[in-house]
Design brief:
- By secondary structure, the chain is α/β, with parallel strands linked by helices.
- It has one domain: 3-Layer(aba) Sandwich (Rossmann fold), CATH 3.40.50.720.
- Helices cover 45% and strands 14% of the residues.
- It has nine helices and seven strands, in the order βαβαβαβαβαβαααβα.
- The chain has a seven-stranded parallel β-sheet, with helices on both faces.
- Strand 2, helix 2 and strand 3 form a beta-alpha-beta unit.
- Helix 1 crosses helix 8.
- The longest helix is centred in the middle third of the chain and has 29 residues.
- The protein is globular.
- The protein starts with 10 loop residues before the first strand and ends with a helix.
- The relative contact order is 0.13.
Length: 265
């Protein structure tokens, strides 16, 4: 059953909507009245999310597309246009290849950057004209604390840092035309992206939690409220901003301080 209706009748495109934060974002926007265009490179995953939303009374369609492929982005545009054009774009799809930078192939580096940075640029380029025609629209780019400090995954992190600049550029250039652009930068979340690492090291997330002042890593549900807020009219005078949602990680490193002081109790 649908709840609050901050997004009643608004068309929201969510990329990477088949699982993790993308699926959680779709559920929140759908529960608040949005009509969802759910994009994922995995057709079955996006269909599963769409079916879940339909069961709670939301209107949602699944689109199988690679956001780094112009042909796929054209499919996204056509799907949004069938509802009257996007009002909200959540650029969540990303790709991060594990491994030492020196061991990564040129193809892996290019793919990380293509999905994580080029994809949001192409999606914005495709959907902005419709928003401009309405003189209204919101783009929420999903960043990462990796854009702010070193946490590994160099190519992915560089792409997320580029997304910070892109977010601000959109806000400055298209703000006079009624478009808002913001970013949410999460810390570590318990999502499927960790599956392989957990198979190799079941304690990895427990170890990471020591670095978070709030004492735990995040869940997708910890982040979707910030995304929904920035996409809503409650944030109507917020644009070009980055909202860090990271359990206090980037505020400081108490574990390091404890190691320095020798007080690890």
């Amino acid at each position: 059953m649908l709840g609050r209706s901050r997004f009643q009748g608004r068309i929201a495109v969510v990329t990477g909507a088949g699982a993790g934060l993308g699926a959680a974002t779709a559920r929140r926007l759908g529960a608040e009245g949005a009509i969802l265009v759910l994009v994922d490179i995995d057709a079955e995953r996006s269909k599963t999310t769409a079916a879940e939303l339909q069961r709670i009374g939301a209107k949602a369609i699944a689109v199988q597309a690679d956001v780094s492929d112009p042909a796929g982005v054209e499919q996204i545009k056509e799907a949004a246009s069938s509802f009257g054009g996007a009002d909200i774009l959540v650029n969540n799809a990303a790709r991060a290849t594990d491994g030492d930078l020196l061991a990564l192939s040129t193809q892996a580096i290019a793919q990380d950057i293509a999905v994580t940075l080029t994809g949001p640029v192409l999606c914005a380029q495709a959907l902005l004209p419709g928003m401009i025609a309405k003189r209204s629209g919101v783009i929420c780019n999903i960043g990462s604390v990796n854009a702010l400090a070193y946490f590994g995954n160099e190519a992915y992190s560089a792409a997320k840092a580029g997304l910070v600049s892109f977010t601000r550029s959109l806000a400055a250039r298209y703000g006079p035309l009624g478009i808002r652009s913001n970013m949410v930068a999460p810390g570590t979340m318990r999502t499927g992206i960790w599956s392989q690492r957990l198979e190799n090291d079941p304690t990895v997330l427990d170890r990471l939690s020591r670095w978070y002042p709030l004492g735990r890593i995040g869940e997708p549900e910890d982040v979707v409220g910030a995304i929904a807020f920035l996409c809503s009219d409650e944030a109507s005078w917020i644009s070009g901003a980055m909202l860090v949602v990271d359990g206090g990680l980037t505020s400081g490193y108490p574990q390091m301080a404890a190691d320095i002081s020798g007080n690890n109790s």
